[in-house]
Amino acid sequence: MRINLEPIGIIKKAGKYSEILIYSEFEQVVKNLVSKVGKNPVCGQELLIVHKNGRSDDVHQVEVTKTTVFDRVGNILKVGKINAHDDSVIDVRIDVHEDLSGSN
Length: 104
What we know:
The chain is mostly beta strands.
């Protein structure tokens, strides 16, 4: 089965950081991200970035990368260095830490 996913942004290297540019038509993704953290700042949040692997010959492969947000300006997220450049971003999610052992 083949599924075509429309990218919502792109990853760019920016010195010792990476920047995730969310395309303007998908700004709602950033607004949802900000609303989920509530009054807490977005900076310091850990994110899971789903992106197409631009280095792979198989265009159907995606990669999930965990990183930390350092700054946000509009629809640009400055994050920790990601081993990707010009990769298409498919999704951005807050990393939810769940205790799988069942203890409270």
